Amino acid sequence: MDVRAQLSMVFHLDKCIGCHTCSIACKNLWTSREGAEYMWWNNVETKPGTGYPTLWEDQGKYKGGWEVKGKALRPKIGRRPGLLTNIFFNPFLPTMDDYYEPWTYKYEHLYTAPAADDQPTARPVSKVSGRFLDLEAGPNWDDDLGGSSVYARNDINLDELSAAEREALFRLERMVFFYIPRICNHCLNPGCVGVCPSGAIYKRAEDGIVLVSQEKCRGWRFCVSGCPYKKPYYNWKTGKSEKCILCYPRVETGQAPACFHSCVGRIRYMGILLYDADRIQEVAKVPEADLVNAQRDIILDPCDAAVVAGARRNGIVDAWISAAQKAPVYKFVKKWGIALPLHSEFRTLPMLFYVPPLLPVLASTENGCYDLGKSDFFGTIDNVRAPLKYMARLFSGGNVEIVKQALRKLWAVRAYKQARSAGNLTEGRAQAIMGEARCAPEEAEEIFRLTALPRFEDRFVLPPYHREEVIALTTETLMQKGQTGFGYTRLPKRGP
Fold this sequence. Notes:
Blueprint: E1 3-12, H1 21-30, E2 43-47, H2 59-62, E3 66-69, E4 72-75, H3 80-85, E5 103-105, H4 109-112, E6 124-126, H5 163-169, E7 178-182, H6 191-195, E8 201-203, E9 210-212, H7 222-226, E10 233-235, E11 240-242, H8 248-251, H9 258-261, E12 268-276, H10 280-284, H11 291-298, E13 299-300, H12 305-313, H13 318-326, H14 328-335, E14 340-341, E15 352-355, E16 364-366, E17 369-371, H15 388-395, H16 400-422, H17 427-437, H18 441-452, H19 456-459, H20 475-481
Parallel strand pairs: 1-15
Antiparallel strand pairs: 1-12, 2-7, 3-4, 5-6, 8-9, 10-11, 12-13, 14-15, 16-17
Helix pairs in contact: 15-16, 16-17, 16-18
């Protein structure tokens, strides 16, 4: 057992209001530079929808992530000879049309236009070419258009639904959408690291943050193709790749990342997870439907004596072990099983997890009164407004039962609090729902407290950093260990 520490995140989608405050905070801090105009290290997407860049989930188009060929795990973009043949022309890159052409407005025309009968307008101008643009896309172009025939109907995750189910989803009275904030997943088996020809991308040994060495990057852009989530970006000004750095300068001083800190809905949680690095390759090869449970198995109990001993052997100090024991992410992912990875079938073992949205309950209106009691507003898990097959395609590699288990527990917490606080459910009905979810009252109360009433220190349990005591994980070190160019081996152990 090779115990490692990983900074991990949980996003509670039932609490996301789609305000994009997180995106703006990140943009202002990290990507408000020439060459980075189109970069959104944090973006918020509407689902159903095509996302950013357009159709990023379609790996038939982009060839991101990993696939199992025989007994071997290899990048979907191909093995070494294939990469070399495409090194000067990569056909699997998103184009500018898949992102958008960054623009500004010709504001000076409002002041310099000659006197006329019509009000002057500030036309959009490309930041790349300087030419006037007809705007056709943007970083959040399909926001809130969950029922549109232009965007939502092209969502690749809808392929699992029958024609009748798809049509029912887009009826006006049943139209539904929810939001998914996305940052780099800082995966345990990152596709970007596995395909970088220059070995510029590496995973920090002490906390698992994936970074790009600007000195070593040669701008080949295979990282963009290799990442199935399309979170590395190419800076057209510097000729280098850039990506989310999980605000490590803030994290190292005990501050939450900018997108986390600014989140209006308080949907984000962060902490240390301990995992067994010896099992990464084994877990990444399991069948798609088993990937979520296999990834849960690789996450270790930080209170287990054998795990603690293994962590100490690898140089993980007691303060970090203590932080892992208090981490909210362990409860969401392993203890309660209600937080799931996004597109586990990409086999990158992402370490950003999502609590799937339960969506609003049903009610009735009579004599001008909004009544929760007369309708079966809890219904069943099988008839939630977002189809289970769709949710399973997003969060469980197509395994519907895993999504059901998570939603049942969330349903049980809602029933528990409705019965105790609002009186909309009888105790018997609430107990029946909780029994089906195998959720005890104590657990329901704990989940409620952490999701509805958390303090800052409850949501962010960040370990104390001592960078001066950590052996620098330089690209040269990675070269000596074999993790460079075309290969991905496990990381060197953390120093004392």
